[in-house]
Amino acid sequence: MRLHMLATLALLATLSLGYHATAEPQRKLKVYISVDMEGTVGTVTSDQLGPSGFEYARYREFMTREALAAIQAARAAGATEILVSDSHGNGENLLIELLPPDVRVIRSWPRRLSMMAGLDESYDAVLFIGYHASASNPKGVRAHTFSSARLTRVAVNGVEMSEGSWNAAIAGHFGVPVVMVSGDDAAVEEVRRRVGPIEAAVVKETLGFHSARTLTPEAAYQLIAEKARTGLVRRSEFKPFRIQSPVTVEVSFKHYLMAEVAAYMPGIERAGSNSIRFTAKDMLEAADIMTFLLTYGPQLEP
Predict the structure, then answer these.
(1) Do the Cβ atoms of 251 and 275 come closer than 8 Å?
(2) How far is CA 58 from CA 64, 140, 179, 224, in A?
(3) Are 75 and 54 in contact (CB under 8 A)?
(4) Cis amide prior to 177 (ω within 30 degrees)
(5) Are 65 and 22 in contact, with CB atoms under 8 Å apart?
(6) 141, 171, 176, 302: which has the fewest C-beta neighbours closer than 10 Å?
(7) pTM score, two decimals?
(8) C-alpha triplet 68, 72, 77: angle, nearest 5°
(9) What is the fold of 30-144+163-237?
(10) Are 301 and 253 contacting, i.e. CB atoms less than 8 angstroms apart?
(11) Domain residue spans of the chain
(12) CA–CA dist 233, 286 (Å, integer)
């Protein structure tokens, strides 16, 4: 009888442990995915990058499939919540009907924090998909910084920035690490040099501003999925990219009139014929000022 009772108690204990193990809620893993287009597989000219381009419809799908590869990898790594930021051109590029129903998507402009809109300290990791090199980089397919029509250089605390490092600094403000980037080889090298040795998917090698040696789409999707999943699994190894405050930002424009007019604003000084300088209390304030500069007064474009 005593042995039977002990066996029964042991069985109940086992069942109880099993119940609590299955009943325990899954730890939330929130992932933010910022998606650009110039760094997507096969993209080399404006023919792929905007609604007037004859290949744009096809490349919207390639962009979407790259984002989907990252989403599926995030799920495989345990992501419970995913926010995707459509961060190219008009912000209306991703074919959202191809994305899973529980994913949320940021679309169109203007929006606070631009390519990182919606991010906050509740997120655990950031993925960059389809990123390109900066305007001041002599290499890189379609290299530019924020606006190919207006800007030639952006620097923070004296160090030149790409969109990747700028956006990583916004994530760093919230204590969120960037764990993976995809794009051409110049873009990837630029981000890793500033942010650290994060996981990277090089989907094409730059041959010039409008030329590249590229993977095929399916090969790119597989590589992105592999690197995104690995980055998320290794996320504890990567530190947030933090910029020391206050933040001094230097911006150089293609047209002198932008610098002249911007310098009329309190807190903005003219640093040269085509450049300005301002100091913000942190990266969020710097991002708001940049959004204003790049959104207001489009008639000043050269």
Answers:
(1) yes
(2) 10, 22, 28, 19
(3) no
(4) no
(5) no
(6) 302
(7) 0.90
(8) 145
(9) Rossmann fold (3.40.50)
(10) no
(11) 30-144+163-237
(12) 31
Predicted pLDDT of residue 298: 56
The verdict on whether 255 is a catalytic residue reads no
Show the tokens assigned to 218: 């399916």
Q: Looking at 88, 144, 173, 255, which residue is catalytic?
A: 144
The Cα-based distances of 28 to 75, 120, 122, 132 in angstroms read 12, 15, 10, 31
Each residue's pLDDT tens digit, 117-169: 999 999 999 999 999 999 999 999 999 999 988 999 999 999 999 999 999 99
User: Predicted confidence band at 299 (pLDDT cuts at 50, 70, 90)?
Assistant: low
At residue 293, what are phi and psi to the nearest 5 degrees?
-60, -35
Judge whether 187 and 140 are in contact, CB under 8 Å. Answer: yes
User: What is the residue whose two structure tokens read 């913000």?
Assistant: 280
Q: Which of 127, 106, 126, 232 is nearest to 174 (CA)?
A: 126
State the burial class of residue 162 (Cβ atoms within 10 Å of its Cβ: 0-12, 13-18, 19+).
Answer: buried
Which residues does residue 277 pair with via DSSP β-bridges, in sequence order? 250, 269
Q: What is the 3-state secondary structure (H, E, C) of the chain?
A: CHHHHHHHHHHHHHHHHHHHHHHCCCCCCEEEEEECCCCCCCCCCHHHHCCCCCCHHHHHHHHHHHHHHHHHHHHHCCCCEEEEEECCCCCCCCCHHHCCCCCEEECCCCCCCHHHCCCCCCCCEEEEEEECCCCCCCCCCCCCCCCCCCEEEEEECCEECCHHHHHHHHHHHCCCCEEEEEEEHHHHHHHHHHHCCCEEEEEEEEEECCEEEECCHHHHHHHHHHHHHHHHHCHHHCCCCCCCCCEEEEEEECCHHHHHHHCCCCCEEEEECCEEEEEECCHHHHHHHHHHHHHCCHHHCC
Min mean pLDDT across 10-24, 80-94, 159-173, 178-192 is at 10-24
Residue 179 identity:
V
**pLDDT class for 297, splitting at 50, 70, 90?**
low
Provide the residue type at 45 as one letter. Answer: T
Residue length, the chain? Answer: 302
